[in-house]
UniProtKB/TrEMBL annotation, chain B:
Pfam families: PadR. It comes from Mumia xiangluensis. Residues 14-86 form the Transcription regulator PadR N-terminal domain. InterPro entries: Metal_resp_DNA-bind_regulator, Tscrpt_reg_PadR_N, WH-like_DNA-bd_sf, WH_DNA-bd_sf. SUPFAM superfamilies: Winged helix' DNA-binding domain. This is PadR family transcriptional regulator. It comes from the Bacteria.
């Protein structure tokens, strides 16, 4: 019996008559890859491929248990499952499970916000490292950074809007409140204490990633961004790294480096999420939602 | 029986299988095969779009488990799925009686 098939690999018989898998030349692996290519624009592709792989390996295992040679069993499993191109056409009639609210506007907002956040980071770094800024400049910067953060969070809120499956739910409400508080924090002139709104935003990403496994790269970057930035800030401050601002008697470098780390990772994550949202939109637009 | 004959009826068949107990995709195919005495021939991969469509419609719910290092999704009928299945069974019964009447040359509903 082939009771311990792995998730990838080719069935091969071992000396004791059981089966094992190796990672090369597997018809099932090749099939899953081919199907993945045809489904590349679907937001739920990873889940579909996981189900497909499980089905194919189960089929192969059962065939092997009836005496079919392992490689033949894999080929038969693939044959029975159907042509990937044909299946892709069938899948095209099923809307992607992931159908975030206002995906395209949210993605565009996220990209604009990411660009503004990157610009804000550059300004923050420049002014902090070249002798500081006056109050008016600082307040302007803090307000712009707050708006940038708000726009950049739009893709996260779009994902959270669908997280409860029944429209706007608790997770969306919590996420929207956190983002609003984070943006207000900046606009209110408290940008110097950026770890607070930053960690709120990272928390929103954590909320979203629990539901959106296929967005884990982008959301993971946002989730890690501000904790890592804050850590760099705290450690650098504790070690008194770099030059000191003698007005406030604080090291200049740690908050700048921390903000740079947080903003850079967040920008990367938001861009990744925004790109997938745009792709999901193009898939769903072509397929009506069933009644 | 070819897959295109099943088109339009596969959702009802899947709901019927899941009405007995929760199943993953492979087990649903196996049940369909056994209960139909190998009458249904369809590419097995076409089952999954049907499952996802039913899930999106709220007639079935899916849940993931890790089994032997693989992710496996099982499906169960929801309350809405039970109601939909009852309705589809009624419709199917009416349809099949009518077809039988025509084919058998016996006026419906006198049978």
């Amino acid at each position: 019996m082939a009771e311990s098939m792995r998730s990838v690999g080719t069935l091969t018989e071992t000396e004791d008559g059981t089966t094992d898998s190796v990672a090369t030349g597997s018809p099932i692996d090749a099939y899953v890859v081919a199907l993945g290519v045809t489904l590349r624009r679907r937001g739920d592709r990873d889940d579909i491929l996981a189900e497909t792989a499980d089905h194919l390996w189960l089929t192969a295992e059962r065939l092997v248990s009836t005496g079919v040679a392992p490689l033949d069993a894999e080929r038969a499993a693939v044959e029975r499952f159907g042509d990937p191109e044909v299946l892709a056409r069938v899948w095209a009639t099923v809307p992607s499970r992931h159908r975030p609210l206002l995906a395209a506007p949210a993605a565009v907002s996220g990209l604009v916000g990411a660009a503004a956040l990157a610009a804000s980071t550059a300004v923050y770094q420049l002014r902090a490292m070249t002798g500081g800024w006056d109050q008016s400049e600082y307040l302007t910067w803090s307000s712009v950074a707050g708006v940038a953060l708000l726009l950049a969070c739009a893709p996260l809120l779009s994902l959270l809007a669908d997280a409860d499956r029944r429209g706007l739910g608790v997770r969306f409400a919590v996420g929207a409140a956190a983002v609003a508080l984070a943006a207000t924090w900046f606009v209110g002139g408290l940008g110097w204490a950026w770890p607070v709104p930053g960690l709120l935003v990272s928390g929103v990403a954590v909320l979203a990633v629990r539901r959106w496994r296929d967005q884990r790269v982008g959301l993971g970057l946002v989730a890690a961004a501000w904790p890592l930035g804050t850590l760099a800030y705290v450690v650098g401050d504790a070690l008194h790294l770099g030059p000191v601002d003698y007005t406030y008697l604080q090291p200049i470098l740690p908050p700048v480096v921390g903000f740079w780390i947080g903003a850079t990772l967040m920008v990367a994550g938001v861009v990744a999420v925004a790109r997938t949202l745009l792709a999901v939109r193009s898939t769903d637009r072509a397929t009506p939602t069933p009644a | 029986m070819k897959g295109n004959v099943l088109k339009g009826h596969l959702e009802m068949l899947v709901l019927s299988v899941l009405a007995r107990q929760p199943r993953h995709g492979y087990a649903i195919i196996e049940d369909l095969r056994v209960w139909s005495d190998d009458a249904f021939e369809l590419p097995e991969g076409t089952l999954y779009p049907v499952l996802h469509r039913l899930e999106k419609s709220g007639l079935i719910s899916g849940s993931w488990d890790d089994v032997d290092g693989r992710r496996r999704k099982s499906y169960a009928l929801t309350d809405g799925g039970h109601a939909a299945l009852d309705e589809q069974r009624r419709s199917w019964h009416e349809f099949s009686v009518a077809v039988e009447s025509v084919i058998g040359g016996v006026p419906w509903p006198s049978r």
